[in-house]
Amino acid sequence: YSVINATDVGVTGRASGNNATDIVIPATVVDSGTTYSVTIIGNQAFLNNALTSVIIPDSVTTIGYYAFKINALTSVIIPDSVTSIGFDAFSNNALTSVIIPDSVTTIENSAFAYNALTSVIIPDSVTTLSGFNNNLITSVTIGNSVTTIGQEAFRDNALTSVIIPDSVTTIGGNAFSINALTSVIMPDSVTTIGGNAFAGNALTSVTIGNSVTTIGGTAFKNNALTSVAFEGDFGTFELDMFRNNPALATITYCDGTTGWPQGFNNGSTIVVTTPIGCSPPDAPTIDSIAPGDGQAVITVTPGADNGSPITGYTAYCFGDTFNLDASPASPITVSGLTNGVSYACAVTAANDVGTSPSSAVSAPFTPVGPPPGC
Q1: How sure is the predictor about 277, in pLDDT bands with cuts at 50, 70 and 90?
Q2: pTM for this predicted structure
Q3: Is the Cβ–Cβ distance between 161 and 183 less than 8 Å?
Q4: CB atoms within 10 A of CB 165
Q5: Phi/psi of residue 68, each to 5°?
Q6: What are phi and psi of 286, to 5 degrees?
């Protein structure tokens, strides 16, 4: 141990001669009659120690870089006192699952790299996210406080789709490269897409929102793109961002935006951008409403997107109360309705340009609770 201050110590490694592969890190230690809290697991503390299990006390706030790198851990419980996980902290183990507590705010590069993770949930506490490259991840949920998805965050996994929350402003280099992505939803908050960020996937189309000002080299290299749409001004964009997409024939930009036209090198030819009119979507059509216990599930058919993909729907229901709920896709569930009261609903759609006119108002319906005894 290493004394940090009058109350805290950091773990620096195992005691001399201790070759145990299962270890329990204590919450406190006593030195010269003083009791200290163990708050830090130091850099390289258990690097290459052949560990098969470890228990981390809930006094720990920081796990340093290389702390548990190159071991044989198959699972680990990170206590909800931890706020920071350093780079390569748990890399090169055999982890198949990990739970990130909602105390963690920062996960650094390669923190969980080279394991066998298949899914991960990032809590809303995390603001800076990286560290899961070279796993087997097929599913990821990214919390709504993440602002930066760092370099190589999910590189070399098995993701087929990902939803990026609208808190994110930066997607780092190679963040999602070498996966199996066929679709990606990028919110209007994103301003920077790093080099190779989505390279080596199976994307067939991509829309670059009007918030994006910087795109690095070969950001979408080696996909299956056939079309690309830009919704904003030409920014600091590398013209080789679409390299090695031989089927890419159509790249559009919105009339009235600046810096266009441009010619993008797709590896075999130069694709010149063409202008299109972009406007809010046409009104959606309500197909059905399924009333339930205090709610209604509304299914819609979208109207034309008018050059900018639809990003979500908002449903409005009127009865004894006014209720609204939003969803990125159909169906939309509106909750908070009063059972036994008649309601009618309308729906609008939105894209990056604006909001559609309202759908026609639905026929009346009445939400109903479950039968007595259910």
Answers
A1: confident
A2: 0.82
A3: yes
A4: 18
A5: -125, 25
A6: -75, 120
- Inform me whether the pLDDT recorded for 281 exceeds 80: yes
Q: Tokens 């080099």, residue?
A: 195
User: Residues in the chain, how many?
Assistant: 374
* Residue 266: partners with Cβ closer than 8 Å, 6 or more residues away: 225, 242, 243, 244, 245, 246, 248
Per-residue pLDDT of 13-46, as tens digits, reads 988 788 899 999 999 999 889 999 999 999 999 9
DSSP state of 25: -
Written as one letter, the residue type at 117 is: L
Pair of tokens at residue 307: 């050059």
Q: Which residues pair with 358 in a beta bridge?
A: none
Kindly give the pairing relationship between strand 170-171 and strand 148-149: parallel
What is the torsion angle, in degrees rounded to the nearest 10, for the CA atoms of residue 64, residue 68, residue 70 and residue 76?
-130
Residue 160, both tokens: 């087929």
Give the separation between CA 115 and CA 71, rounded to whole angstroms: 10
Percent helix, percent strand, percent coil in the chain, to nearest 5: 0, 35, 65
Cα torsion through 59, 64, 69, 75, rounded to 10:
30
pLDDT tens digits for range 96-129: 999 999 999 999 999 999 999 999 999 999 999 9
